[in-house]
Known about the structure:
Radius of gyration of chain A: 17 Å
Shape of chain B: elongated
Largest interface: A-B, 41 and 42 residues
Number of strands of chain B: 7
Strand content of chain A: 25-35%
Largest sheet of chain B: 5 strands, antiparallel
Order of helices and strands of chain A: HHEHHHHHHEEEE
Structural class of chain B: alpha+beta
Largest sheet of chain A: 5 strands, antiparallel
Oligomer: heterodimer
Number of helices of chain A: 8
Distance between the termini of chain B: 16 Å
Amino acid sequence: MQMERKLLLERASAFGQNEESAMTEEVKIGEELIPFEAEITQDKIDNYAECAFDYNPIHVDPEYAGKTPFKGTIAHGLYVLAFASGMMTRRFGKGWLCGGKLEIRWRAPVKPGDRITVKARVVDTKIIDGKKHAVCELVWENQKKEKVVTGTASAQL
Amino acid sequence: MGTEEDYFVEELTFDEMEIGMEFPDTTYALGEETVSKYIDVVDDRNPLYTDEVEAKKSGFGGVIAPATSVCLFTKPSNLLSALNPKRRPPSGSIHVSQKYEFINVIRPGDVITSKSRVVDKYLKKGRKYVHIGTDCFNANGAKVAVGESIGIWAK
Lengths: 157, 155
């Protein structure tokens, strides 16, 4: 119950000046961010394709994609990458939006029907370009617990 | 990588690129409808993007767009398509990793100019690695984001 309250408070402090200072001071090494979960569907991939104007058939044409080694469509890598930004924005607000750094590696394809969970944990605080940052390790896992994306993200404190 | 018709566009091969080679600037207007659809697709539902009152409290002066909106127009295929004639990454190339730095907020309606170049290319274990760096600026000339795409080029 206490954990739930803590999570709610974290959500509430994603914006708002009063919370901002408290929010960044509370960062502790080992802290886990609220995980992000997504169900990948062809509809969502198609909508992403519209946003990015990226209609590569490997993403949007099941018949074409079915004949490739992937045996079906795959999500755009940058679509899957974006899940991290929502988590970091909720937790760090301005420190992510103006001062955030992200570095990721795609390791396996994400397909319609996949359930992706993104977990992030604060592993360090360090000075980058003269400013203190919280450094998080991130991992995107599918429903089979396969790591599909891994990376690090840092936000200014 | 654009539309299916883009597959008739000539590929830009590893050997044709040199470190320091610059691509023409690209300019992209981030429409409100696109931002709205993007927020929905990536499920990043922060009031900063939709609630004018909450966004003002945040100190940004109004609603903003998600930091990763730059992903929509900084992928290598977009950058290469600015070449004249238009080019594209070779079929079978793999985008293996990506870096971003988010420097200033982007807003719905912003017009963003991207300046990009080949920052590195090398062979590793027989694979052709290409790093393309991109700096994104808003209409006031403020740098909003920096990206670096790392790909294994198929040709």
